[in-house]
Amino acid sequence: MERREFLARLAGYGAAGAALLCAPARLFGAQRPADGAYGRALRDDAHAVRTAASFPYLVAVRGGPPARMFAAGIAALGGMGRFVRRGGSVVVKPNIGWDVPPERAADTNPSLVATVVEACLAAGAKRVYVFDHPCDSWQACYRNSGIEDAARSAGATVAPAAAESYYQEVAVKGSKVLASAKVHELILEADAVINLPVLKSHGGAGMTCSLKNLMGTVWDREEFHFKGLDACIADVALAVRPTLNVVDASRVMLTGGPRGNGGSRYAELGMQILCPDIVAADAAAAKAFGASPGSFEYIGRAAALKLGTDDLDSLDIRRIVL
Amino acid sequence: MGGTRSGKAGRSVYGRVRAAVSAAVFLLYAAAFALSGSVAAALAGVLPRLQFFPALMRAASEAAAGVLGGAAAIAIAVLVLTALFGRVYCAWLCPLGAMQDGLFRAGRAVRALRGGRGGSGLASARGYRPSRAAVHAGIFVLAAGAALAGSTIILGLLEPFSAFGKIGAGLLRPLADLANNGLASLSGAAGSFAVATLTVSWAWARGLAGGVAILLVGSMALGSGRLYCNSLCPTGALLRAASFRPLFGLRIEAEDCSRCGACERACRASCIRPAGAGIDQDRCVRCLDCLSACPSGAIRFGLARPALHAGKAAPDLSRRRFLSLGTAAAVGVAGAGLFGGASLYRKPAVFMDGQSRPPAAPPGAGSVDRFLGVCTACGSCVAVCPSGVIRPAEFQWGILDPAKPYLAYDRAYCQFECDRCLRSCPTGALRQLSLEEKKLTRLGQSSLALDRCIVVTNETRCGSCAEHCPTGAVSMSIPAGGGLPRPVADSALCIGCGACETACPVEGRKAIHVEGLAIQDRARFLRVRPGDEGKAQKASSVEGSGAVPAGGKDGFPF
Fold first, then answer.
1. How many angstroms separate the CA of residue A99 from the nearest CA in chain B?
2. Phi then psi for B165, rounded to 5 degrees?
3. Is the model more confident about A27 or about B426?
4. Where are chain B's structural domains?
5. What's residue A12's pLDDT?
6. Contact residues, chain A, for B188 at CB < 8 Å
7. Which of A80, A230, B422, B469 has its CB 3.0 to 4.6 Å from that of A297, i.e. a possible disulfide?
């Protein structure tokens, strides 16, 4: 055997051996080492981008189907290229929490998910991942929400998130209650996170939107309830920072949320809110919901953590009616 | 039809076809139990219902309800097949039979390695074993009689599909999940999410139920082939009676037989008499190994002739045989009466920890008493449940009904939009409700303990129970004196799915829990009153109005 061939084989066996050694640890859901530093650095760049003054701070669109509203909204905001780096990896994080059909509007509108995925790919993203850590059985949620099919045919990788092994513990710096959280590895590795919540009522938090949607990037959901739901919802946004929030407020469940039931009431708002500032996005969503941002404790807490502003009057808002 | 052979040590063509069919049956049933996902669910919705004994039980339930359906057709078809060709079902169509054959081969291979008895080819069973029909009949009378009298405990232990299912749900499924996670880890290392990591479907009760079944069946199969089928199996006993004088059978042609004993040693049912003296048709499972083993082609499958029953021209009706059969039957009836009588005093849940509560049965059970009287603990519903909330009981149903399914709400809840369990139930223990009916079927009743609720004890917002409730039975409401919204329950809307209990973040005993109902009745369905759709909410909790205030700009409220 030639020396070169020997070395090549040695390298091959080494790689195979390493893979096998890593395998048993994951069989029972152990963690992989964190390597999210790369993604975080890029998101800091994105932070500089999103505070650029040349574009409106918040864009609100109404009067059209979700895909058209998004097209108009993202154009007004300077295009997807502002938020997605060419060749980078992107997580699009819709709400896929419940095994219900799309018309129940308990999950994000599947056509909006598809449109956002396409926009990311068109802006040069190398890979787009879509996932959520749902409440109901995950395969059923992915399938029956219509999101799995829509995202996949738009070109995204629909990733699983219902096993602890996909999550890595990260410290939540500056938090009030949540000292650390197990966050999905794709979030930690991504160059950009597009937060894609559906606006609806919520039995625990009052209303769920951009901030609450981040709970689906975390493994231990019960902990949030036990430690204080509002405080944890605000805290987790310190660890998971979306580059853009796109609020699906087309059909809004006003009561009986987040799952909804036969007695749930709806409003056909036909609206979408796009904003890089997660607090401002939720403050505007609260008003669209028919409440004041102050009605929801976690919005104030997030503002106090300097995650954004809930003072809508001071902002440059672009309103578009299709 | 002659014994077509393909060489001295090989199997006959018929033997190969038999082995292929049997292996395919095993793989299909193993896939239905061991895999997760929609393909496995589709298999599990069909395959269990095709098996003989479950179909017989379903036919009985259907007949009691005045329906004559496919179940009766399946049972009759198998009986006719058996009367014509003998126990073809046992070696061709029974998944537990296939599993035993696999274990038998494994045992033979081990013995061959050790250099023990007869390692080569097919020859390694124990040779002819006496019939012991009376014992088998007695056990059948006990199992079937106890079931008729109200207790399926013996059937649950011995009925072959039930044993296979418990092994599938309790052992094969967790193993398949582990294998899947191994693949997921390899694909993950390559940066792909093609295989998703699953939560391993493991519970001690599942492993225990599967473990008991594999120990019982495996210990007999490893060394003795189809001994289980010819001594304990209730299906075997029934088909044995049906195949006493089959129209077609295996026979040994005396003029071609060299009395070498190869067939006798090869027979996994131990039913070939020494020196080519004949084959006991009632114990022969039609595996056709003797065709392959015979070096002189003396064994033929064909139309029965008197010679078929060589050495046993007329049924043995001696006084001795009559007495032994009678004794066995009497013992069986007495045992059946005992179990049946005990089942009249069935106590759901042995309250060992002082905190247990009546368990909930899977949807479609109707009344718990009826359900427990029909269910043979086959594990089909356990295997197919996507959330894993269905678990075999230890003693939740009492000591007479071990391994029967109940809903364990500690880690999972019954999925509102799912009806896989009742679709897969082969015995009729779970009725075929439509999905819409199932969504309104009350499995249990939730009950609140506000003194344990973290809204009260920790003064924090929660509402996890109300969030998960699919029917609106639990909602959040600000108490009269003000403060944080607390859960309130409307029992008429509750279906006992356990979502609230699973979701409750309280450690230990939850602040909301579900008690099973002895009779599954119908819940009220929450509807929006006509004309209320757009109305503003009652001020009990923060809920949306969706109304744009007067000061809005361009129709935007901000």
1. 7
2. -65, -40
3. B426
4. 13-306, 368-516
5. 60
6. 26
7. A230
